[in-house]
Specification:
Elements lengths: L1 E6 L4 E5 L5 H9 L5 E4 L2 E4 L3 E6 L7 H4 L13
Antiparallel strand pairs: 1-2, 1-5, 3-4
């Protein structure tokens, strides 16, 4: 599963995680005994975490990959 981490400092990270437990992550961020959190392969300061979102990928349609034919107008001659 892929998640996006948004920070207060303006950085955005996308990382793969084997499992995502928002309740446990919330507890870690709010713990007085923890200074950093590990999300996938990204380590961030817990106070810098603004949000963590699950990234859902849209299936790619073959229709989207075929370019449309565009009619070209002949240039005006003067």
């Amino acid at each position: 599963m892929k998640v996006k981490i948004i920070t207060h400092s303006g950085s955005t990270y996308e990382t793969e995680v084997q499992s995502y437990d928002p309740v446990q992550l919330n507890e870690d961020i709010n713990s007085m005994q923890i200074n950093t959190v590990l999300i996938g392969d990204v380590i961030v300061s817990k106070i810098d975490v603004k949000g963590v979102l699950i990234v859902t990928e849209e299936p790619v349609s073959t229709e989207d990959t075929v370019p449309e034919e565009v009619e070209q107008e002949e240039p005006n001659q003067i």
